[in-house]
Amino acid sequence: MTTPHNIPVTGATPRLTSQTMAFVLAGGRGSRLQELTDRRAKPAVYFGGKSRIIDFALSNALNSGIRRIAVATQYKAHSLIRHMQRGWSFFRAERNEFLDILPASQRVAEEKWYAGTADAVTQNIDIVDDYGVKYVIVLAGDHIYKMDYEIMLRQHVESGARVTVGCLTVPREEASGFGVMHTDATGRIVEFLEKPADPPGMPDNPDMALASMGIYVFEWSFLREILREDAADITSAHDFGHNIIPKIVADGTAYAHRFSESCVMTGHETRPYWRDVGTVDAFWQANIDLTDFIPDLDLYDNSWPIWTYAELVPPAKFVHDEDGRRGSAVQSLVSGGCIISGSEVNNSLLFTNSRTRSYSVLDHAVLLPGARVGRHARLKNCVIDSGVEIPEGLVVGEDPEDDARWFRRTDSGIVLVTQPMLDRRRFELDN
Question: Does the pLDDT at position 4 exceed 70?
Answer without folding.
Answer: no
